[in-house]
Amino acid sequence: MKKILLVSLAAVLAFAGCIKDEVYKGPSTIDKVVFSPEAPTSISPVTVTATVSGLQKVTKATLNYNGTSADMTGSGNTFSATIPAMPDGTEVSFTVSVENEAGFVTTSDKYSFKVGDPATDWSKLKLNEVYGAGADEEKFFELYNASDYPIKLTGVTISKDEGNCWTGIDGEVVPAKGFFAIIGAKGTTPRGFSSGFSAKKSVYIQLFDNKGNQIDAFQRGDKDDAGNWGVSITNYSGSWSRVPDGTGKWMRTDTFTPGAANSTTAVDDDYVKN
Known about the structure:
Blueprint: H1 2-24, E1 29-36, E2 46-53, E3 58-65, E4 68-71, E5 73-75, E6 78-83, E7 91-100, E8 105-107, E9 111-114, E10 125-131, E11 140-145, E12 151-152, E13 157-160, E14 163-167, E15 173-174, E16 179-183, E17 203-208, E18 214-220, E19 239-243, E20 249-253, E21 266-267, E22 272-273
Antiparallel strand pairs: 1-2, 2-6, 3-4, 3-7, 5-6, 7-8, 7-9, 10-11, 10-19, 11-16, 12-15, 13-14, 13-17, 17-18, 18-22, 19-20, 20-21
């Protein structure tokens, strides 16, 4: 009778052990997912942090966003990874997945955010350098963005001698603290400006925002008595540049630098209106 009882007790203990093992080898739980900042701009990476619980050790944590995966770092029950800064207007969806040492994978709910920059400060967009001495395909206007955020040029216009000669399109952007060169006169390049530009004639170049408000200008020389631009004046083979970039007055620079920082070796030009 004692032998029967001992065998029965051993069977019960073994069964209980099996039940315990099955519970122990279950999936982990993702208790919380947070991301910061919650309202990112195009210059803001987003840090995602997940808090996990469970009896099994987490062996791998993964952040999945917009078709991309990134390993999360951490230990214990907290893991994090960073979504890099995205362009303004980008919609981002992401989940967190964790795998534990028992091989179970758990995936979080889906989270999302939309990248949004503040309203464009048009006062930060400047005509920065102009060059009209070379061949038509070499002539250029350069813009500079003095702000901390990219500026979209969609709808932005440039006029020469009071006639429109260039309009920005979707996809054309001046990076923060960066440059954008419009190269090629008289249609010599696909996205050049439609007008001619001569370094030996009076000229008036204006920059307008996407609502038609003038935000900057470059003038060398004056109109004639009949009110026309293009008056013959002293030729110059270099470019005219703001020195320093974006904020300085217009000066003559022997080195022309489309899409890059202006030369600081410069001299005044008596024909230029500052």
